[in-house]
Amino acid sequence: MSKDHPLILIADDHTIVRRGFKNLMALRLPDVNVEEVADMAGLRIRLARSPRPELLVLDLQLPDGNGMDILPKLCNDPAQPPVLVYSMNPVRLYGTKAMKMGAMGYVSKDAAEEDVVTAVRTVLSGKPYLNPDLAVRTPRPGSTMVLDTNPLERLSARELMVLDLLLTGAGVKDVAETLGLGISTVGTYKIRIYDKLGVSNILDLQTVVQLHRKGVH
Fold it and tell me: Helix or strand or coil: residue 8?
């Protein structure tokens, strides 16, 4: 595609989300072309052929894989398009990690249409989209001030996934089956989560998460 008619690829397993995104682009950015895939398998197949999209809009939760797992590989491959993460996962928990992995932006599915359009325009122009919810957490160059005091930011992307499932009441075995991991591996993640957050049981874990997730979207 030409720069005058950039191609966007959206990877999301919800038909209504893909349709809504395409309709929004048609309304606000009519020169943009949008293709869609519904799962990780489809994403891999599409990225392996031409034409190369100018932008990949990526959901983190796909039925056959997790976007956080593939994000570093995509972002470190110059042959792949820049990535704008478009997810229901909280911006202030996942946004920083996604940007550190190389994503050019992170926008919530709860965001206003104007914010989504701004994010798309910004990344298509070759610039990173700095979500306002992340801007206050980014130190100025040369600053030694630590702005991030949220203990949840200590967790890795995989630990956050395990955390979210534990909070639904899922046991270690259930989490292992959901994420396709070994039971002992999930047990190790659980221990790390508890250690990093300074808790010893699920009730304390819920309290810490409720405290630090207030207003976090």
Answer: strand
